[in-house]
Backbone:
């Protein structure tokens, strides 16, 4: 069944790393791992 929307957001220490609402799609796993690593 297709999705009807919803939010998928990832934050590190209160800083938004990724927002499906802003991008309109799910993130690439490698990009998210790199982004989180950069924030730590």
Residues:
């Amino acid at each position: 069944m297709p999705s009807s929307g919803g939010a998928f957001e990832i934050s590190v220490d209160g800083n938004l790393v990724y927002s499906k609402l802003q991008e309109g799609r799910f993130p690439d796993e490698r990009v998210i791992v790199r982004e989180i690593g950069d924030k730590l």
Q: What stands out?
A: The radius of gyration is 11 Å.
